Amino acid sequence: MQLGPNPRGSHRLGPLLEPAFHRHGAGPQGWRRGHRQSFWLRPSTDKAPRLQVQPTPFGFRYAAIRRPIKDAKTHDYVRTTLFIAPYTVQIPPNNLYDIAILHVPIDDTHTAFHFIAWGDASTTPDTESWRKFLGTQIGIDVDTHYGKFRTRENNYWQDRRIMQLGTSFTGIKGIPNQDIAMWETMGPIADRTHDRLGASDLAIVEFRRQMVQAAKTMQQGGPAIGTEEPRIPHYKLKSFQGIVPKEEDWRQLGTAPEEAELYADKQHHANN
């Protein structure tokens, strides 16, 4: 699940799901029905969130808990991200639409990357606006087979001028292209034994733990990760963002009734 040269010539990249846990950025500026907004609303300026993780039957739920701008003494600003095994990451919704990233393995060194948005037609970008925002327009950023024009050889079209002006940290247009630059420059297979993970890497640690356990389970003839019963229909799983009272349990935010019932049953059995 790492990135390497793509023999098919199409838009293939990897490696894991890790960057998806740390998404930030502005939204597309030209949207359908005349709606225009150049940013996603974030009711917090807290740059050091408290991070927590909850293992689930479908993978895990990950929370970033921040001080809100208003009512910080009594409330928290909570954003939850879902890893839905085997390859989906549901990012916290912004104030306009929902987002998910799918990293679908092709072989040991190739992954198909899908970055999707959905929601009400009045606030969700149309296809071309979304592609423009992501830097994946056909004929401009990618070819008709979605083979990317930005490569390691041309430095991913990095613009040092806009970096100097402070309008872009990376100088590379589009969240996917920034991720691609990071992934490709690590090589086809990265030696993770040299990683130095910290407190902010809690979700990465949990993801790797689950992947190692999933491989061991498969070797022993067990079920693939995410296929065990009882299962929660994926379309009912939803990430969350919002300001909530401090006493609110973030693990219950945005959960489907089926998921809440499953946790209640487990708690009942644990107490008896």
Structure at a glance:
This protein has 272 residues and is α+β, with helices and mostly antiparallel strands.
Kindly state the number of beta strands. Answer: 7
Main sheet specs = 7 strands, antiparallel
Radius of gyration: 20 Å
Level of helix content?
A: 10-25%
Taken in chain order, the helices and strands follow as EEEEEEHHHHEH
Average of per-residue pLDDT values = 83
Describe the overall structure.
With 272 residues, this protein is an alpha+beta fold. The chain is 21% helix and 20% strand. The chain contains five helices and seven strands. Strands 1, 2, 3, 4, 5, 6 and 7 form a seven-stranded antiparallel sheet that branches. The model is unreliable at 1-26 and 29-38 (pLDDT under 50).
Layout of secondary structure:
Layout lengths: L49 E7 L2 E8 L8 E10 L3 E4 L6 E10 L2 E9 L8 H8 L25 H6 L9 H10 L17 H18 L20 E6 L11 H14 L2
Antiparallel strand pairs: 1-2, 2-3, 3-4, 3-7, 4-5, 5-6
Question: What brief labels describe this structure?
Answer:
272 residues, alpha+beta, 5 helices
